[in-house]
Design goal:
Layout lengths: L7 H5 L7 H15 L9 H15 L2 H10 L1 H4 L4 H5 L22 H6 L11 E7 L1 H6 L1 E12 L15 E2 L8 E10 L2 E10 L8 E2 L12 E12 L8 E4 L15 E7 L6 E3 L2 E9 H6 L1 E5 L6 E5 L8 E4 L15 E8 L6 H15 L1
Parallel strand pairs: 1-9, 11-15
Antiparallel strand pairs: 2-7, 3-6, 4-5, 8-9, 10-11, 12-13, 14-15
Length: 365
Amino acid sequence: MASVNRDYYEVLGVPRDADNKTIKNAYHRLAMKYHPDRNSAPDAEDRFKEIAKAYAILSDAKKRKLYDSHGVEGVSHFSDEDVFRNVDLGSIFGDVGFGFGPGGESIFDRFFHHERRPVRGSDISIRLEVPLELINTGGSKTVRFTKPSTCPGCHGFGTHSGMAPKACPACGGTGHKVISRDARQNSSTVRFQQVLTCSDCRGSGRVIEDPCEQCHGTGEVDKIEKLKINIPQGIDDGIALRIPGHGLPGPQGAAAGDLYVNVFHEADARFQRRGADLWRAESIDVDDAVLGCHMVVPTLDGDVDVTVPAGTQPDEVLRLKGKGMTRADGMGAGDLNLRIQLHVPRILSDEEKILYEQLRQLKRK
């Protein structure tokens, strides 16, 4: 029996910085060794499933990042369907006859069917831009977006009766057809299997003879959804907030997927954001830089008076501690950084020219 929650890198025998090619090669080698059609050991199937799951997690950049950051807990919310979605395990075995089961089912169907959860809808992702002030204080924001939703007239089945459609007679409801042929290689017979999407049902496994009038047989209708999203205080740009059950509807009445709201700050003419710090350019005259001055600058909490020291240099940064953004971890606030730029006049009055000339003569002495 395979160990519970073993480290996936340990399962494949690869280092944590292994590239995709190394991970795939390790999976191929181990899966060929423990494939139940080649290995009769009692724990072969468990080992094979463990190896396949480790490969599915580590070969997907998003899932691997979650696993590296949070371990098994980071990927525990994925169903087997989610874990193996878009992972072509069978292609590695197709050339030796292990790609599909005797009925043409995939490796996933063959070894994970009894563990599969009900099929759910796909997740969707939207972008939400909010003002810096809202991120600084935290609060709520209402979002509106259009998404396909389960048709109320047919409950997602696409039929006029609102009942499940009948199985496709051409493929028996599987959604695909398997074509097998034998070939001779090195004095032995090798069976090749080709799986084709059923052309009659286009892979759905179902045939709708009398479609629903509301959705025209698709099982979905467009719906404008409005949600109030809680914006955590100090949230970093690009963080995705998960809203369960507000993704795309599942097929034929199954559960909906999740909505991911990717939060970014709105462009702000006053500031540039860098994490918890804010940056702002301030232009002052040459004489103010030489002699020092006072100026009023905006912050997220209102205007403040800032003293510019005498002798301030071009591109010098004045730091206003704690006047930036509230930190997401609750550990205080960042800083507001003022980058000083000098304003050199292009046009001078006669009096100004005289004074600048006197200053130059004085410096030469």
